[in-house]
C-alpha cells in the first residue's frame, strides 16, 4: 500500500528538470544527492497516516475528512495556536531543527493569504477564489510548497538604484486567454528539487513603468521550461561518518524560467506594482510564518546545546568555570528564544478577518537574535570540542578494526568509550565543520533576509512613541519645554 510518504516521493517523478553536476537528474527519488532528505520527508508525511501522530500534527480536512497538516489550520483561538506550535515542533524535532524548509512556512503563507483574501479583492476580483482554490488543493493533496523571492546576484549596486539588469528578473513575456508566459530567474529556492509548487513575487517595489515585473504566482515546479540548478550536494551516503549530511541536506537551487506557461488560476496578481508590493509586504510582516521559524529555531538551538553538553562531559571539561559559562550561554539562548515564542503566543492580536495572530515583535526579535545566536552557538561548540574535532579517526571502522586497541586507549573519553566518543564527535563535526555545517551557518545568518536590513526594519517598525515619551518626561523633570522642542527636532527628526 502506498503510504502518504510513499505517495509524496512517487509524486516527484513528474518530468521535473533538476540539474546537478552539469547533468539533468533523471529521477531524483533514486539519486544519492536526494534520497537521504527524501527518506526524512517520507517519514514526516507518514506521520499523517499514523493514528496517534496525525492528531498531534493535523486536523481533518472539511472536504476529504483526511488528516491534513496544521500549517493549514486558520487560527482563531489560543488552542489553534497551540496546535500549530505542536505540529511545527514535532516536525522540527524530527530533523533536530536542521531541515528548515519542510513546507510549513510556505503552507502557512498560503493559509494566511487565504484567510485574509478580501484584502486583495480591490486589485483583482478573482484573487480570493484563486487563493482559496489553491489553499484547498495544497491542503488536501499534501502539496509541498516553497518560496523564492530573490533575484540573481548580478549587480546589487544597480538593484539599489532601480537600474537593475532587468533581463534576469522574472517577468511576463506573453499573455493568452489561458494564462501567461514568464521568463527570468529566482533564488534562493531551498528544497526546490523535491517541492511541488513555488511561490514567487518580486522582493522590491517594481516601477509603475515596468508592470510586467509585478506579479505574484504559484508555479508548479514540473512546468515545462523550468530548470532547477542545484548547488553542490553535501549529502552523504554514510550514516556513520556524516549522520546529519546523510539525512538532512535540503538542497538549494536557482530556478530558471524559460518561457514558462502559467495558467491564470495560478496567477494571483499581475501587472500591478502597488498590489504586488502590498502582497510582498504581507509576507515580510507575517507573524504566522515567523511563528513557525521561531519554533524551528528553538529545536535547533536545543540540539546544539545538547551536543555541547555531551562533548563537554565526554572530555571532562564541563567541570571548568569558563566552559560552564559557555554552556550557560547556550541555555540562555534557548530560553530567550523560547520565552519570545511564548510571549508571542500570549500577546496575540485578532485581525479584521477573525484570525488570531501571535504578536510579531517578539517573533521578529527572536528571528533577529537567531541570526547572531546561531553562529555564536557554533563558535562555542568549536571552543569546547577544540582540537578534538581533528582527532577523530577518519572512519568509525577504526573503532573495531586492526588498530582497535589504540583507539580504545587513546580515543576514550572521561565517561565514555572510544567508540561512543568518536560517534559523538562525528555528529558534532557534521554541524560544526562539514560542508553541511557551513551551509547551515550561512542559512541561519541569512534565511530571514539581509541581517543589516532585518535589524534596521526592527528599528524602523518599532513603536518609538513610548520611548520618546519616557525621555521627554525625564527631560521635563530636568529642564524645560524649550529643551524638549529642540530635542524633538534633532533626535527624532526622521520620524516627524
Ligand atoms: C542557505 C540559504 C537558503 C536560502 N533559502 C531561501 C529560500 O528558500 N527562499 C528565499 O526566498 N530566500 C532564501 N534565501 C535567501 C535569503 O533570503 C537571502 O540570502 C537574503 O535575503 C540576502 O539576499 P542575498 O543573499 O541576495 O544578498 P545580497 O542582497 O546580494 O547582499 C549581499 C551583501 O550586500 C549588502 N547589500 C546588498 N544590497 C544592499 C543595499 N541595497 N543596501 C545596503 N547593503 C546592501 C548586504 O547587506 C550583504 O552584505 C536563502 C539564503 C541562504 C543563504
TrEMBL record:
GO terms for molecular function: oxidoreductase activity, acting on the CH-CH group of donors. It comes from the Bacteria. Pfam families: HpaB, HpaB_N. Keywords: FAD, Flavoprotein, Oxidoreductase. Residues 5-269 form the HpaB/PvcC/4-BUDH N-terminal domain. FAD binds at residues 153-156, 190, 450-453. This is 4-hydroxyphenylacetate 3-hydroxylase. Residues 278-474 form the HpaB/PvcC/4-BUDH C-terminal domain.
